[in-house]
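Dear colleague,

Thank you for sharing your sequence with our group. We've completed the structure prediction you requested, and as agreed, I am returning the results in plain text so they can be pasted directly into your records. Please verify that the sequence below matches your submission; if there's any discrepancy, let me know and we will rerun it promptly.
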Amino acid sequence: MMLRKLSILGSISVLVMLTACSSNPPRNEAGYYTPAATSQGVTFGNVSRIETVSKAASTSGGGAILGAVIGGVLGHQVGGGSGRDAATAVGVVGGALIGNEVEKRNKNDGEIYRISVRLDNGGTVQFEYQRIDDLREGDRVKIQDGQLYRI
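Please find the predicted structure tokens below.
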């Protein structure tokens, strides 16, 4: 019985660690651009403005499901009879709430950067990225294949 509990606890620990692992995509994977800016192939300009924009955090539901499973398993280990059923139900609900919150925090998509670029032809385009690395206002950039590159 003790070996079974250790096995369950080990499995849960591994799942929690896997859920906690996340990474931000590179700057050039998630961008918004005006199609007219790339119709000529390569376009050049200067970064005219960089602003931070709040974005509502969203979840896939995976954290809630994983949390519900973990909470249900842990709740089932408590008590006996109808007390065990109640503990399992509380574990499922509590685990789902906690798992959803953990997923929100790990996604880290609460803020994005909106980059405005003043093109050499006088137009302006905007890009939105989760990371901007060393990009600064005034930097010379090129736009190629819908992506922004510092030159």
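Summary note from our side: The longest strand covers residues 42-54.

Kind regards,
the structure core
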